[in-house]
Amino acid sequence: MTPSELTGFIIFILISLSLIGLSIPLLMGKGTGLIAGYNTMTPQEKAQWDGPALARFTGRLLLVIGLTTLLFGAGLFLLALEWLTWVYLAVVLGLSVFAVIYCNTGGRFKK
């Protein structure tokens, strides 16, 4: 492994551990201030939403993306599986589209 590959691998590890670390308080239903959009709502708007449920959903999503990033980094840098780039992109984009649709349909997080 060349020094530049090692640097890239370390960056992937740091990013994935950061995502996993951020998911922990969200999984406990805390840290709603970390959710974009929710933290900018007025108190009257926040009263209409189930913040802890939204935080847990966001935490699960963040945990999956963090673990996927860790696996992708290991596969790309340790095993030299370059096709994993496309798999990783598809997984993250798919999860993002799923999250947007899931959160905005059915009133799942409304009180």
User: What is the β-strand count?
Assistant: 0
Rg measurement, Å: 17 Å
User: Spans with pLDDT under 50 lasting ≥5 residues?
Assistant: none
Oligomer: single chain
Written as H for each helix and E for each strand, in order along the chain, the element string is: HHHH
How far apart the termini lie comes to: 52 Å
Helix proportion: 55-70%
Overall geometric form: elongated
* Contiguous helical run count: 4
> What summary fits the major beta sheet?
none
Provide a descriptive summary of the structure in words.
Helix 1 runs antiparallel to helix 3 (51-77) and helix 3 (51-77) runs antiparallel to helix 4. The protein is mainly α and 111 residues long. The chain is 69% helix and 0% strand. It is elongated. It has helices at residues 3-27, 43-46, 51-77, 84-104. It is built from 4 helices and no strands.
List its salient traits.
69% helix; 111 residues; mainly alpha
